[in-house]
Amino acid sequence: MSQFQLDGFDLDTFVRDTLAEDLGEGLPGGGHDVTSESVIPTDARFSGVMDNRDAIIVAGLPIAEAFFRALEPDMEIELLVDDGDAVEPGTDLMRLSGNARAMLTAERSALNTVQHLSGIATMVREYVRTMGNPDCTLLDTRKTIPGLRHLEKYAVRMGGGSNHRMGLWDAAMIKDNHVLVAGNVGEAVRRAVAAGVQEIICEVDRIDQIEPALNAGATRLLLDNMEPDRLREAVALVAGRVPTEASGGINLDTIKAKAATGVNYVSVGRLTQSAPAADIGLDFTPL
């Protein structure tokens, strides 16, 4: 069995809770797969092959394996490719054989996970390729499905992107509403500095906010919704004193031009918020 670990993510709990949701545990009449139990004999065995119908970047296979093993620990499972691999249509991703009921009960949860994560990884790879700039790093955001952040950010890494902050705890992100309460950009940053925060990302949407943010102690500037000419002006003004990040209005049509302005990062919310699921299937054969 593959050993899949992510800091802050409990795979066993995720698998258990996902299967429990599908099985309706705790609900009247719930707690079992009524279709498989009524149609499939207890000793029936299947072999199965998971494959993709489109060219994709793979992500989530070890998690799919965990779903099947949760219902049959000794199921024979072979992962045929690695997460992060680019595969052509019709590639066999996983082979498995074992108890038919266990396979059918775990199938949807396993496929949903691999389809979703591979969809993210595939979109990320497309953005990295379109950006075509090794001097600029593609970042995700906190626009993730609740409960799936660690997995979705893992998929971003499999696609060749990098992670922004994981949550509200590991960096300060001063945005317009924080500035509204504090009174101005400089005061908002000063408050974060005074609180002992080490990493302070400050969003600015005007050139005249840059110096106050830097003078107050911002460690990164997020240049929000600026067109390429304005981004170049902002980068020149910052002059390498802190890293710069372009955000807002970035898609496949705009990312190349914005990344070419000299910013260190571009962040794109749609990587996790809007990636379509990869077309992946699982076909079974009775043994």
Your description of this structure?
This protein is α/β, with parallel strands linked by helices. The chain folds into two domains: 11-129 and 275-286, Quinolinate phosphoribosyl transferase, N-terminal domain (Aldehyde Oxidoreductase, domain 3), CATH 3.90.1170; 132-274, TIM Barrel (Alpha-Beta Barrel), CATH 3.20.20.70. Helix content is 40%, strand content 19%. The protein has eleven helices and twelve strands. It has helices at 11-23, 34-39, 61-71, 100-131, 149-158, 176-182, 185-194, 210-216, 228-238, 255-259, 270-273; strands spanning 45-52, 56-57, 76-79, 86-87, 92-99, 137-139, 172-174, 200-204, 220-224, 244-247, 265-267, 280-286. The strands form three sheets. It has a six-stranded parallel beta sheet. Strands 3-5-1-12 form a four-stranded antiparallel beta sheet, covered by helices on one side. A two-stranded antiparallel ribbon has the order 2-4. Helix 1 (11-23) crosses helix 3, helix 6 (176-182) packs across helix 7 (185-194) and helix 7 (185-194) packs parallel to helix 8. The radius of gyration is 23 Å and the shape is elongated. The two termini are 22 Å apart. Residues 33-118 form the Quinolinate phosphoribosyl transferase N-terminal domain. Pfam families: QRPTase_C, QRPTase_N. Hexamer formed by 3 homodimers. Pathway: Cofactor biosynthesis; NAD(+) biosynthesis; nicotinate D-ribonucleotide from quinolinate: step 1/1.
